[in-house]
Prior knowledge:
The chain crosses the membrane at residues 27-43, 55-77. This protein is mainly α. The chain has one domain. Helices cover 82% and strands 0% of the residues. It is built from three helices and no strands. It has helices at residues 2-15, 21-43, 49-76.
Amino acid sequence: xxxxxxxxxxFIGLVVGAxxxxxxxxxxxxxxxxxAFAIQxxxxxxxGFTERVxxxxxxxxxxxxxxxxxxxxAAVIPG
Length: 79
């Protein structure tokens, strides 16, 4: 799940311009939420469902945040 978030964040960072990157990262996080929900439903275990989904989405948020921070710093620092 977190690998998918990383791939999605890098893809958004490379394809989308800096002015619209934050909006697209929010859309990507929403896609990660839906993916985490589907993955956890597929396991068929009901105990701890919300905790597992929350952990997956929180991890995706952290991963996407770190990657977007890198793209933000790359945009600010002249190269």
